[in-house]
Structure formats: structure tokens, C-alpha cells
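As a next step, the fold was encoded as C-alpha cells, giving this record:
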Amino acid sequence: MSIINCVGKRIKRTVALLIAATLLCSLTGCAKGPTGNNNLSSDIDSNNADETEFDIERVRKSFIIKGVPFELPKRIGDLDDAWTYQKRETHYVDDTGLADFYFNGKEMFVAGIGDFIEGQEEDGFIYDIALETDDCSIGGITPNVSTKADVLKKYGEPSKINNFEDRGLYRYIYGTQDSNQKLFFIEHSQMFTVVFYAENDVVQGVRVVYNTLDE
């Protein structure tokens, strides 16, 4: 079965909401941020997004995670023996959820996984990864090192900007976020997002979602 066909199976929308919200919180500090209104305060659509500078097919293949190259989507059975993982039972419904991944026993990232069926786990896929440490990068953008100027130089203006004023953060979204007008639904999303600290425009975290989920 091809990658597109495997990843093209439907993921329950309620589960997609949970996964995306959890991964977003990992970038915007839900657990660490100040108390108060956690709603997005401003969403800005840009009609000037330069699509010629952004290519999701290139970005999804350009992960460096603690020195280890990676790409999305990734079939779990294609990971080499150095990789292990632990499914998060509290963030898992049907064949979709979250898992912690390790390389030679070292924790690497939390990822969204789909098509993850008991007895057929090797056919499951990783489709969503968020990173926020300076020993990782996506598309040449490194958390706590790269700046807004670096992102704009490499990818041009984003297709959308979200402001998280109560947390002192804002987010650039590049690519396709087919969410049926609901922020966290990720059907058909093929996007690269970058979260910045508002006080200095330094990158706080990076994330790629890559799937072609059927209706």
C-alpha cells in the first residue's frame, strides 16, 4: 500500500482536535503560561503569501531531531531499530492518537500517529510533529536560535498569522490548513507553523502536519 493511500484513511475529527490541541499547547506553553484568557486574540489572513518560496514537499523532508534526520509522513515499520515508542493511552481513540518516540533510549519528540491498529502497528504513520528545543530544526529553522527575519527570508510572508497575546507569542502558518473553519481540525492539512516570542521575534517552536486524510 502506498504512503498516500495509508495516510489517506479518515481520522476521527474529535480525535484530530485533541491531538492538534495537545501539540499546539506544547508550542504555546499551555502548561507553563500565565493564567487568564487563553483564546486567540487576533487571527490575520495574508493575501500576499509568497507560495513560490514555500514548498511543503521540501520542508516535510528536512527535519533534524537531535542530530537525526527525519521526514513526514513516516511509516512506523520503516523506522530503524534504534527507534522505539510508547503510545499515550490517554490521548488515543480508535486508530489515532499521540505517542512518545525515543532514539537509542533518548526521548526525541511527541507525535500524532494514525492508522495505528492493534496487531498492525508497523503500518501506522507519524504525521504531526512539534519541536521546541535548539537541538532540533525543521526546514532550516531552529527554536531559540532562528528569528522572524530568518523565516521571512527563507519562506516569505505566511498565509496566516495567529496572535497569542496573553502568552507573549504569535504564530506563522504556511501551507494548507483545511479545518472546516475550526482551528484544530487537521483533515488534509499540509502545513508548516512557526511560533515566535513577541518580545524579541525569536522562534519558540516549529511544527509540521502532513496528511491527505479522506472525508
Observations:
- DSSP finds four helices and 13 strands in the chain.
- The first strand starts at residue 42 and ends at 45.
